[in-house]
Amino acid sequence: MNNVYIICAVTLLLIFVLYYLDRYNKINKISKSTETPEQATQESVPAGECCGKHAVCEKQKLAEARLRSAQYFDDEELDRFAGRSSDDYTDQEVEEFRYVMYTMGQDEVREWMECLQARNIELPDELKEECYSMMNEIDR
Q1: Residue 36: how many CA atoms within 13 Å on its side-chain side?
Q2: How far apart are the C-alpha atoms of 135 and 55, rounded to whole Å?
Q3: Are 121 and 82 in contact (CB under 8 A)?
Q4: Is this prediction's pTM over 0.90?
C-alpha cells in the first residue's frame, strides 16, 4: 500500500514539474516574440560599437537625426538652401558650405550634418566624401 502512495506522489510531482516547465517555456516564447527587431539588433551589437559597415552606420545615424531638433553652428545663412537638391549648387555655394565645415571643430562635423538634415538642407555632392572622411578620422 505504501508503494501505491509513493508512486502517486512521484507521478503528481512529475506532472507538476512538466506543467511548470511547459508554462515557463511558453512565457519565454511569448516574450521573445514581442521583442522588436531594434531590440534584437541592440543585443547582437555591443553598445557604442558599429556593426562594421561604417558608411551604412553613418548614414543611418544621419537619417535618425531628422527626428531631433535643429542645432545651429553659426550657419544660419545656409537655411536659404533648404529643400534644394544636393546636385543643384553652384561652385560659390559649395564654397559657402566648405567654409562652414572647415571652420568648425572636426569632432562637430557629425552633429553639423545631423543639423543640416533636421533643417532639410542637403549637403552638396562635392562635399559628402570630405564630410564622411572627417567623421571616420574622428572614429579612429
Answers
A1: 3
A2: 10
A3: yes
A4: no
SS3 111: helix
Which amino acid type is present at position 65?
A
Identify the H or E element spanning 127. Answer: helix 125-139
Instruction: Give me the DSSP letters along 28-97.
Output: HHHHHHT--HHHHHHHHS-TT---S-HHHHHHHHHHHGGGSPP--SS-GGGGGGTT--TT---HHHHHHH
| 105, amino acid identity | G
In angstroms, the CA 32 to CA 4 distance is 42
Residue with cell 502517486: 8
Q: Are 127 and 94 in contact (CB under 8 A)?
A: yes
Q: Which amino acid is at 78?
A: L
Predicted confidence (pLDDT) per residue in 64-123, tens digit = 555 454 566 778 888 899 999 999 999 999 999 999 888 888 888 888 888 888 889 999
C-alpha–C-alpha distance, residues 83 and 78, integer Å: 11
